[in-house]
Design a protein that fits this description.
- The chain has 437 residues and is of the alpha+beta class.
- It is 33% helix and 28% strand.
- It contains 14 helices and 23 strands.
- The strands form six sheets. Strands 3, 7, 8, 9, 10, 11, 12, 13 and 16 form a nine-stranded mixed sheet that branches. A five-stranded mixed sheet has the order 20-19-21-22-23, with helices on both faces. A three-stranded antiparallel sheet has the order 4-6-5.
- The chain is globular and about 85 Å long.
Length: 437
């Protein structure tokens, strides 16, 4: 993509309405624009990141046999009356009436909707277990939306739902999702820590939230240092028992949010204790038969008796993750994207657009990178070098390839790694080999 043709409305000044780093940088980097309180339009740069996060989440859900579907944003109120949550949910639910005076709502979550779909299709234990998910926009009418996409009213969420015959099956589905979440966050460049949590309005008696460490986190957390250092993605799980054993071992580690911290337990950990700020990026729940009994989601068991299915739900805030990643990965100059979610891999900077040698070299580099499948944003604009460098640092692409007339005379280009700030003068061939290899 040529920057001269790309819609990237960056802002030099810090927006006064933005209170946290991610909100400030997303506005300054031209990723989002506010439509109304807590509701944002996603501009091309922000949308590219959002879709990359969504795809990683999708791949990890697919890997554990979770099947993707799509449910509507607008749901009938009668389903929520069946579960007795319509009145109980509170003012965060946006309630509406259609032209036929039917009560409807903009879904804040989908337990009722998926239970209705399941009960209309599944009758026998032979059709269990099932894991289903979708990635869909949600709306919760927060009384005070703030912090940009971190606490908005409209947000993109992956929510998955499990259906099992008994508790043992439900626990195994829960454990599969537990591990999938750890792998997902690691692929996103994040170290996520699982912590026992309250179930809240979802219900149930087993729940974990996943928090990433960031200096600007919402709450203080404490945990064993081993939880931060683990490599979740490389874990070998060759059998179901391996997975269940692994989850049990992980939940044995001390980890607590601010309201649940235990000074006595922390004292025993000594140097193994880490205290930091955390941001919630995912939450999983087991709630048994809370919805299946209320909504008559019944199957015939192997003994011929009717059984209310055991259920769980599993959420990841996809749009919230964009802000969370920035909170965890930035410096004074701007965003530092992990390569897996960066909107482009390379920022190609032509220091003297209009110069024949620079233009020819940059066009050749641009074509070579694209042919090799490397996503590149080419700054082909005329203008001051300082402005180009500042904007590239602001948008945070992993690599910057700088081409100028002085370097070309010596057969050199400059390659800068955004995260470390390390700069190398290389031959053009070596730089291309490094970026495409």
């Amino acid at each position: 993509m040529r920057l001269s043709e790309y819609f990237l409305p960056t802002i030099k000044e810090t927006p006064t309405e933005a209170q946290i780093v991610s909100h400030r940088l997303m506005l300054r980097a031209g990723m989002v624009r506010q439509s109304s309180a807590g509701i944002y339009s996603w501009l091309p740069m922000g949308f590219r990141v959002l879709k990359k996060i969504e795809q990683i989440v999708r791949e990890e859900q697919d890997a554990i046999g979770c099947q993707e579907m799509l449910m509507p944003t607008i749901q009938p109120a009668d389903l929520w009356r069946e579960s007795d949550r319509y009145d109980a949910y509170g003012p965060e639910m946006l309630r509406i009436t259609d032209r036929h005076d039917r009560d409807m709502l903009y879904g804040p979550t989908n337990e009722e909707q998926i239970t209705d779909i399941f009960r209309g299709a599944v009758r026998s234990y032979r059709d269990l277990p099932r894991l289903l998910y979708h990635i869909q926009w949600k709306f919760r009418d927060e009384v005070r939306p703030r912090f940009g996409v971190m606490r908005g009213r409209e947000f993109l969420m992956k929510d998955a739902y499990s259906f099992d015959l008994d508790f043992a099956g439900a626990k195994h589905s829960y454990n599969k999702m537990f591990i999938a979440y750890l792998r997902t966050f690691q692929r996103l460049g994040l170290s996520a820590i699982p912590m026992a949590a309250e179930s809240g309005p979802i219900g149930g008696d087993m729940s974990h939230e996943f928090l990433i460490l960031a200096d600007t986190g919402e709450s203080e957390i404490a945990c064993h240092k081993d939880l931060v250092a683990m490599d979740w993605e490389s874990m070998s799980l060759e059998s179901d028992s391996d997975m269940d054993t692994l989850v049990s071992s992980l939940t044995d580690y001390y980890a607590a949010t601010d309201e649940q911290r235990d000074p006595q337990a922390e004292g025993k950990l000594g140097d193994d204790l880490i205290v930091a700020r955390g941001i919630e990026v995912g939450h999983i729940f087991y709630f048994g038969t809370k919805y299946s009994e209320a909504m008559n989601a019944i199957v015939t068991g192997p003994d011929g008796q009717d059984v209310a299915v055991e259920m769980g739900s599993y959420g990841i805030g996809v749009s919230r993750l964009v802000g969370a990643i920035i909170e965890a990965s930035h410096d004074d100059n701007g965003i530092i994207w992990p390569p897996s979610v960066a909107p482009f891999t390379v920022g190609l900077i032509n220091l003297k657009a209009g110069d024949d040698a620079c233009d020819k070299a940059c066009e050749g580099i641009y074509e070579s990178l694209q042919t090799a499948g490397v996503e590149v944003l080419y700054d082909d604009r005329t203008g001051r070098a300082g402005v180009k460098f500042a904007e590239m640092d602001l948008i945070g692409l992993p690599w910057q390839l700088v081409v100028g007339p002085r370097g070309l005379k010596e057969g050199k280009v400059e390659l800068k790694e955004r995260r470390s700030g390390e700069r190398q003068e290389l031959s053009l061939e070596a730089a291309l080999n490094g970026l495409t290899g």
